[in-house]
Amino acid sequence: MTSSEFTRGLLAEGRDTKILLVVVDGLGGLPDPRTGKSELDAARLPHLDALAASGSCGLISPLGPGFTPGSGPAHLALFGYDPWVHQIGRGALSAMGLGLDFRAGDVAARLNFCTVDAQGRVTDRRAGRIPTEKCRELCAKLGAIRIPGVEVAVAAEMEYRAAVVFRGAGLEDEVGDSDPQVTGVPPHVLEARGKASARMVEVANTFLDQARQLLAGEQPANMVLIRGFGRYPVLPQMGEVYGLRSLAVAGYPMYRGVASAVGMETVETDWHLDQELEVLRSHWDGCDFAYLHVKKTDSAGEDGNFELKVKVLEEVDHYVPQMLELKPEVFILTGDHSTPSIMRSHSWHPVPLVLKSPWAMPDGLPGFAERHCRSGSLGLMPSTRVMALALAHARRLEKFGA
Amino acid sequence: MTSSEFTRGLLAEGRDTKILLVVVDGLGGLPDPRTGKSELDAARLPHLDALAASGSCGLISPLGPGFTPGSGPAHLALFGYDPWVHQIGRGALSAMGLGLDFRAGDVAARLNFCTVDAQGRVTDRRAGRIPTEKCRELCAKLGAIRIPGVEVAVAAEMEYRAAVVFRGAGLEDEVGDSDPQVTGVPPHVLEARGKASARMVEVANTFLDQARQLLAGEQPANMVLIRGFGRYPVLPQMGEVYGLRSLAVAGYPMYRGVASAVGMETVETDWHLDQELEVLRSHWDGCDFAYLHVKKTDSAGEDGNFELKVKVLEEVDHYVPQMLELKPEVFILTGDHSTPSIMRSHSWHPVPLVLKSPWAMPDGLPGFAERHCRSGSLGLMPSTRVMALALAHARRLEKFGA
Questions:
Q1: Which fold has domain B6-88+235-393?
Q2: Which position among A256, B134, B196, B317 has the lowest Cβ density within 10 Å, counted as fewest Cβ atoms?
């Protein structure tokens, strides 16, 4: 954890209050220079605007000024874990999200199906974004890989993405990526960053050699890139730290992965909001804390599709009344990080947050957007502080000191 | 550094973006109670006001609430070095700024020429602010000082200020100042704050005895006060930490000293803004990061000259278009600390900052002043965070985690 406040016994257990945390991926944006309006400014958000008036608002920063987080660190921060301290390889998150049998001592990595030319140079790092169905078929093919003394499991994620889990003695995760990040060059030679990882490099090289042979006849996905080696993470569990029975509703596997790593119950679901809400409703009675993930804002931002991001935001707004219908004592809607469409990438900019509860200061802001939230009563704070606010407004944190 | 974020290899090198950091010394002020306006409120600043509308603003704090920094710590903080961790004696900074031969193991200190009466009591701590030329002459005179086993070098700084470097075995810098800070009393007896510094006290006392004899016939500068003992600092270098070729343009030697200590290239120049800008222009192509220092705002504030500080601020504003003409991807104008004219001293008050870049949230503030910047999107943050923001807006920081 960021700090030991929670484990100092501040927690009042046995309450029956509920917390709903809606994470709109890549929520924050920047103004389009032609209009001066950000995605949130441009979107018609009657329900979120009403919350910005009746609830408390602020901005949250996952890693502090200037640092842009990946999805893993950004989510860990929101769940209250210092992302500089608790580093998880993306492969580990993917493996968990895919439901692969992944245990302490195993090492996971991400696979990207890619296209290489006759000289072995990468010509497309995403193999033309092959459909998920094709990815599953190719993963089954890689099931034929045999490495002495090591168990290997491969599973498809979305489109060209997959994950692999290696189980065997002496496997460590200090290994660089083979993904060169650019095209026109061969994949990087795998490099052990620590002596203990030499065995992992040997195993991964065997895996890549056999994969090359198995995929030789395929087009466009005739090779894999491997990256994000990560051991199974050992993290404090939310049930113990916060005393909450926690539920994660996320359509995209990686987010179930990070939720599962901190001890949340995860439910497989499609990533459409109406289906996620359906799952949430059916599991609501059994949990104290639910995390609901909305992916498409981030994808739209990363594609530089300002209008689509606006549209997804309006869709989220449309579902807000259904979320509030569950009557959580604490409702928080925020993002894991910003993804300004004009940047086509994650960014370091702080993320708007709105919190509604009977104990929230009503800020009376004119709307839910970056420019308004910075005047909110919650100020600008680290994302790692959100869980304490959630617990406080749920009356689940005891007074500290007499 | 404040944290190890940078050294964790987050840095994307090889970019061709440029950062210009303009440090207006003692920038922040307080309202004159008669008008209710601070120096920044009172100044006519059309160009800075425009930046406050189109760029991102905030307030920065060098040492946290309540702590007033000297120029050394305030600058170290701006360059990203935790000033509580990296403490450099002011003498060390002066010695470096003056280009004295100053190496690892040496101890430097500042000298102030002063006036003492027949009883040895200090009657003027600045010897009537003797001209720099006179200071040089007196420093040459002190060149006659001989201490067995120790090399001594003295050099003039500005007006009554000079610096001395001692080189010899067993010299440590845990020594108090002789400057009593008030007049009417004798200089303090030098005090070793640690056992290891006894030899340094002995050497410095010998130096002061001989100085007293050599200056006996002078008027008004008939003695020196010694203060700010400091060993040569060993600091992480900006080139390694940030991957930046860095340039310091500062007319006043002390600021070149701190810049040089963190690995910036320094160029000797006059301290007039037009000449500093001339130097900046001629070196611009060869650097990724340039730091430009404006001294006279601080001097005016320390003299309690509100009107002069306003005038210097307006002069800075006049030069802003010339700074922007260099087309830095990131332009930041801020101060190292506040120097409110009504306090006639440095202060702890947070310092306004404006950042302009294509990726900066346009804050739309009505002007560049303390009262507006506190509503800016950058919030109130430690000065040590400025470099991360600069690198982020220059697209020089990689995403952290997947």
A1: Alkaline Phosphatase, subunit A (3.40.720)
A2: B196
